[in-house]
C-alpha cells in the first residue's frame, strides 16, 4: 500500500458501546460495535459495569475491525479516540487503550469530542460511494441520550451551539417515559416501534423556554401525572393504550425538536440542515425532518448505523484532524464534561 494513504483507527467508549472503526482516506473500511446487554437488567447504564465491559470488549473489537478492513496494524497512521464528554470510567478505557496501542506502533494519537463526532458522521463515505456531504455552513440537530443541541457548523472544527437543553436530553425523555410504560431499556427504539402501530390521540404540553433552547423534564412529569390519573380510573390503561400513548409521546417530542429547528433555520437563513445522534434513528423524526425539503431546505440524515454511538464518526473526525496534523499528547486526560 502506498504510504500516501491515510488509515485511521477510531475508538469510541464514552457510554455503553465499545466500538472500533477503520477509515482509509475518508472512506470507511470497517465499523464494529459491541453493545453491552448487561445494563438491561438495571433499566439504565451502570457506569462501573460499563467500564468493566469496555475492558473485556476493546481488544476483540479492535482486532475484528482490523480484520474486517483487511489491513495490518502497521498500516495505521494514527489512533483517534473519544476523550469526552461521557462517563469517566468508560472514557478511561478507550483513551488508555488508544495511547498504549499508538505508543506500541510509534504513531500519533488524536483527541475527539464525541459531539463533534456525531456532527461529522455526515462526512463518512462508504468505500463504494461518492460523497454527498452537507455544505458549510449547515445546521445540525444533535439528539442523543445525553445531549440535545442545535449546532451551527461553519467548518469541520468551527462549530457553535446555538440552542441546547436546559435539563433532560430528548433521548433521556424517550427512555424515561419508556420506563414509566415498563418497556425495557433503552426504551427509545421500542417506543418508536410501538408508536408506528398507534395514533397520537393524547395531548401533552410544550415547554416554555427562551430562544432556541429545549427542556424535556416538564414533559416527563406531565406524562407521569397523566398516566397516574388514567391508571386510577382504569388499571389496564397502559396495556390497553400502549401504542397510542407511544405515538402521542413521540409526536410531542418530535414537535418540540422541530419547532426550534425551524426557528433556527429562520433566524440564521441557513437551509442546509442535518440531524445526528441516537434519536435521529427515530422514524417519526426522520420522516418529519425530510418534509423540511418542501420548505426549501436540503436535508441530511446519516445512515442508521452512524446515528447511534459508533467509532466511524470518531475515525472520520480523526481523519480531518490528521489532515491538519492536530495530534494530542500522551499526557492528555479524559474530560467527562467536554463542550463543543
Ligand atoms: O447517540 P446515542 O447512541 O448515545 C448517546 O450518546 O447518548 O443515543 C442513544 C439514545 C438513547 O436515549 C436511545 O433511546 C435513543 O438514542 N434512540 C432512540 C431511537 N434509537 C435510539 N430514540 C427514539 N427512537 C429511536 N428509534
Ligand atoms: Zn452519542
Describe what you observe in this structure.
The mean pLDDT is 95. The strands form two sheets. A six-stranded mixed sheet has the order 5-4-1-2-3-6, sandwiched between helices. With 340 residues, it is an alpha/beta fold. The chain has nine helices and eleven strands. The protein has two domains: 7-124 and 307-323, ATPase, nucleotide binding domain (Nucleotidyltransferase, domain 5), CATH 3.30.420; 138-301, Nucleotidyltransferase, domain 5. Residues 114, 118, 144, 277-278, 309 line the site of zinc ion. Residues 114, 118, 144, 277-278, 309 line the site of zinc ion (ZN).
What's the short story on this structure?
By secondary structure, this protein is of the alpha/beta class. The protein contains nine helices and eleven strands.
List keywords for this structure.
40% helix, Nucleotidyltransferase, domain 5, 9 helices, five-stranded mixed beta sheet, single chain, binds 5'-O-[(R)-(carboxyoxy)(hydroxy)phosphoryl]adenosine, six-stranded mixed beta sheet, 340 residues, 2 domains, 19% strand, binds zinc ion, alpha/beta
The hetero molecules present are: 5'-O-[(R)-(carboxyoxy)(hydroxy)phosphoryl]adenosine, zinc ion
Structural class: alpha/beta
Overall number of domains: 2
Shape: globular
Helical amount: 40-55%
Q: Superfamily at the CATH H level of the largest domain? A: ATPase, nucleotide binding domain
Number of strands: 11
- By CATH, the architecture of the largest domain is named 2-Layer Sandwich
What value does the Rg take, in angstroms?
20 Å
Strand order of the largest sheet: 5-4-1-2-3-6
The rounded distance between the terminal residues' Cα atoms is: 36 Å
Q: What ranges have pLDDT less than 50 throughout 5 or more consecutive residues?
A: none
Arithmetic mean of pLDDT: 95
Strand content: 15-25%
Q: Mind telling me the CATH class of the largest domain?
A: Alpha Beta
Q: Please work out how many helical segments DSSP would assign.
A: 9
Largest sheet features: 6 strands, mixed
Element order: H for helix, E for strand: EEEHEHEHEEEEHHHHEHEH
CATH third-tier fold name of the largest domain:
Nucleotidyltransferase, domain 5
Amino acid at each position: 500500500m502506498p504510504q500516501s494513504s491515510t488509515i485511521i483507527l477510531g475508538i469510541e467508549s464514552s457510554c455503553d458501546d465499545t466500538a472500533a472503526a477503520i477509515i482509509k482516506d475518508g472512506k470507511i473500511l470497517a465499523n464494529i460495535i459491541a453493545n453491552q446487554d448487561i445494563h438491561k437488567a438495571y433499566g439504565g447504564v451502570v457506569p462501573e459495569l460499563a467500564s468493566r465491559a469496555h475492558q473485556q470488549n476493546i481488544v476483540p473489537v479492535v482486532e475484528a475491525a482490523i480484520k474486517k478492513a483487511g489491513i495490518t496494524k502497521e498500516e495505521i497512521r494514527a489512533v483517534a479516540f473519544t476523550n469526552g464528554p461521557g462517563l469517566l470510567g468508560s472514557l478511561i478505557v478507550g483513551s488508555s487503550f488508544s495511547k498504549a496501542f499508538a505508543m506500541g506502533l510509534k504513531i500519533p494519537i488524536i483527541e475527539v469530542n464525541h459531539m463533534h463526532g456525531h456532527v461529522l458522521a455526515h462526512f463518512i463515505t462508504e468505500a463504494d460511494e461518492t460523497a454527498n456531504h452537507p455544505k458549510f455552513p449547515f445546521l445540525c440537530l444533535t439528539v442523543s441520550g445525553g445531549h440535545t443541541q442545535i449546532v451551527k457548523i461553519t467548518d469541520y472544527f468551527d462549530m457553535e451551539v446555538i440552542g441546547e437543553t436546559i435539563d433532560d436530553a430528548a433521548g433521556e425523555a424517550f427512555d424515561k417515559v419508556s420506563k414509566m410504560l415498563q418497556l425495557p431499556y433503552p426504551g427509545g427504539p421500542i417506543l418508536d416501534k410501538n408508536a408506528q402501530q398507534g395514533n397520537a390521540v393524547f395531548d401533552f404540553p410544550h415547554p416554555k423556554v427562551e430562544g432556541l433552547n429545549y427542556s424535556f423534564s416538564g414533559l416527563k412529569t406531565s406524562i407521569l401525572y397523566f398516566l397516574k390519573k388514567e391508571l386510577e380510573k382504569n388499571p389496564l390503561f397502559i396495556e390497553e393504550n400502549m401504542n397510542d400513548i407511544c405515538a402521542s409521546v413521540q409526536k410531542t417530542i418530535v414537535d418540540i425538536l422541530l419547532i426550534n429547528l425551524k426557528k433556527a433555520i429562520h433566524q440564521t437563513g441557513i437551509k442546509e440542515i442535518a440531524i445526528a445522534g441516537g434519536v435521529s434513528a427515530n422514524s417519526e423524526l426522520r420522516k418529519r425532518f425530510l418534509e423540511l425539503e418542501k420548505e426549501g431546505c436540503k436535508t441530511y440524515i446519516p445512515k442508521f448505523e452512524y446515528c447511534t454511538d459508533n467509532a466511524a464518526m470518531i475515525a472520520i473526525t480523526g481523519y480531518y484532524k490528521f489532515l491538519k496534523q492536530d495530534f494530542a499528547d500522551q499526557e492528555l486526560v479524559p474530560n467527562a464534561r467536554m463542550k463543543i
